């Protein structure tokens, strides 16, 4: 698609999540484009043990939807904003003596964007948040090993963790996200697939009912994903690829999802909503602002 403002064109690819997870999509698109072979990726070492409280909260914690104004019909929306790669790296340094992971930083910025745009559905205090429920997000976690890094398909699990919408400052939100995903060891990450297999034995109606509950508000209102595309420059027919924007799937009514794509020396946040017109644009801009606030702390 021509893009005069960018001085080139957009290459639009649509991939079905039933066939490919995020890492598979990255691998497939790299095969379609020209560029140096990526460095051999290493599987991330994960903790051997889980945090029982976090695992129970993941499956049983009371979730909150982000309310939609009454009398308005939800509709899909998409928006994206560029994120300065150097500022994102600085944002990860916002906590003294600690470098946050990319996923933790995305979660914290998403929480800040949601709070800025919609407030906190549970009220401001932590006590009220826990008693009334929390806004949860799904985080994909790769299950790839050194032997399966190049395989295409869905080789991931997901964890459901709370977003800190109750906190007032960007640094507090980043601190609240610290270690949430690492609270899930190998056994905990195997639970979603095991449950899916058990439910599938009950037939398609049971599977549809479980997916309807597990896939939408209030059980989970947000999705957060970080996709690393590598630092090597890619080309198509001699034309350099300047940016990658990866939009997540449309969520159930009331939901939204964030995907951060880091490619070469660029980053972009893409937001998909199933809410009111303009919500996606507001969230993308608010996310970028949250990164700026964290980066100012990291650079201080």
Q: How would you explain this protein's 3D organization?
A:
Strands 3-10-9-6-4-5 form a six-stranded mixed sheet, sandwiched between helices. Mean pLDDT is 87; it is low at 124-131. It is an alpha+beta fold. It has nine helices and ten strands. The chain has helices spanning 22-32, 52-60, 85-91, 102-118, 126-132, 170-177, 186-200, 204-214, 279-299, and strands at residues 2-3, 8-9, 75-84, 136-142, 156-162, 222-228, 235-236, 239-240, 256-263, 266-275. The longest helix is centred in the last third of the chain and has 21 residues, at 279-299. It is globular, with a radius of gyration of 19 Å. Strand 1 (2-3) and strand 2 form a beta hairpin. The protein has a domain at 48-67 and 76-144 and 156-185 and 216-299: Nonribosomal peptide synthetase, condensation domain (Chloramphenicol Acetyltransferase).
Outline the low-pLDDT stretches. Answer: 124-131
Taking the sheet with the most strands, its summary is: 6 strands, mixed
Shape, per Cα inertia axes: globular
Total beta-strand segments: 10
In the CATH hierarchy, the architecture of the domain at 48-67 and 76-144 and 156-185 and 216-299 is 2-Layer Sandwich
With strands numbered from the N-terminus, the spatial order across the biggest sheet is 3-10-9-6-4-5
Structural class: alpha+beta
| The CATH homologous superfamily of the domain at 48-67 and 76-144 and 156-185 and 216-299 | Nonribosomal peptide synthetase, condensation domain
- How confident overall, as mean pLDDT? 87
Q: Helix count, per DSSP? A: 9
What's the CATH C level of the domain at 48-67 and 76-144 and 156-185 and 216-299?
Alpha Beta
């Amino acid at each position: 698609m021509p893009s005069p403002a960018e001085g080139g064109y957009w290459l639009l690819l649509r991939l079905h999540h039933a066939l490919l997870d995020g890492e598979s999509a990255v691998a497939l698109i790299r095969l379609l484009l020209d560029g140096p072979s990526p460095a051999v990726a290493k599987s991330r070492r994960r903790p051997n043990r889980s945090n029982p409280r976090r695992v129970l909260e993941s499956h049983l914690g009371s979730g909150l939807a982000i309310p939609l104004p009454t009398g308005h019909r939800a509709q899909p929306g998409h928006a994206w904003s560029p994120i300065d790669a150097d500022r994102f790296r600085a944002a990860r340094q916002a906590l003294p003596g600690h470098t946050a992971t990319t996923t933790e930083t995305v979660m914290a910025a998403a929480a800040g964007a949601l709070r800025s745009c919609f407030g906190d559905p549970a009220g401001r205090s932590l006590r009220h948040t826990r008693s009334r429920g929390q806004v949860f997000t799904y985080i994909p976690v790769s299950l790839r090993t050194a032997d399966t890094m190049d395989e295409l398909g869905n080789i991931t699990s997901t964890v459901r963790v709370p977003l800190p919408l109750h906190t007032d400052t960007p640094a507090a939100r980043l601190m609240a996200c610290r270690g949430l995903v690492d609270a899930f060891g190998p056994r905990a990450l195997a639970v979603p697939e095991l449950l899916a297999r058990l439910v599938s034995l009950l037939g398609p109606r049971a599977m549809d009912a479980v997916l309807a509950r597990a896939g939408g508000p209030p059980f989970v209102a947000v999705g957060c994903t970080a996709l690393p595309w590598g630092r090597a420059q890619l080309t198509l027919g001699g034309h350099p690829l300047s940016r990658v924007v990866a939009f997540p799937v449309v969520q159930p009514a009331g939901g939204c999802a964030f995907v951060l794509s880091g490619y070469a020396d660029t980053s972009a946040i893409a937001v998909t909503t199933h809410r009111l017109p303009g919500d996606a644009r507001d969230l993308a801009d608010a996310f970028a602002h949250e990164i700026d606030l964290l980066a100012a702390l990291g650079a201080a």
